[in-house]
Amino acid sequence: MHGGDQGFRKAEAGYFMTQEKDGNAVRHAAAGAVRVEANRSRKAGKLRLRVTVKEGWHFNSNQPLEDYYIPTAFAVDGQALDVSQYPKATVKVLGFCDKPLSLFAGGFPLQIAQPDVAESAEIPAATLSFQACSNEICLQTEEMQFTLW
Q1: What is the rounded distance in angstroms from the CA atom of residue 121 to the CA atom of residue 63?
Q2: What angle do CA 54, 133, 39 make, to 5 degrees?
Q3: Does residue 134 lie within any of the structural domains?
């Protein structure tokens, strides 16, 4: 989505709201349980996301404790964020599962360096992929894309 795009956009699991202004974007997903604010600046050379997950909801971390859980992933043009760049996950047991889970909840930052545009003929895009879950339900995996400028 480019700088002036506003309105509703189709996501795999439903619709999310997008607002963009001056290189910043705010997106909502998971029926309003997730808010992602993107700050992108060519001068800074980085794309910064601030993810806020509504109380009672969570994502699996980028390194879930079981192979069958869907991890959170952040990438630019297919280049994944290094494991060390993700925030520290919270490990805890929730009411629906006896085993510990590795989770992101509340608010957390993600940051990735922007690629050199001269190397690419296309405008680079960042993709955040996540599955929002509550203690009662897990929604379909959603992807949010952000053009870098």
Answers
A1: 32
A2: 50
A3: yes
123 vs 98 pLDDT, higher one: 98
The two tokens of residue 134 are 């509550």
CATH number of domain containing 79 = 2.60.40.1250
> Which pair of structure tokens corresponds to residue 6?
């506003």
Cβ–Cβ contacts within 10 Å for residue 139, how many?
Answer: 19
Q: How far is Cα 133 from Cα 124, in angstroms, rounded to an integer?
A: 29
1 occurs within a structural domain: no
Q: Residue 128's domain spans which residues?
A: 7-147
Residue 4 has pLDDT above 70, yes or no: no
- Phi and psi at 2, nearest 5°, equal -95, 165
Q: What is the number of structural domains in the chain?
A: 1
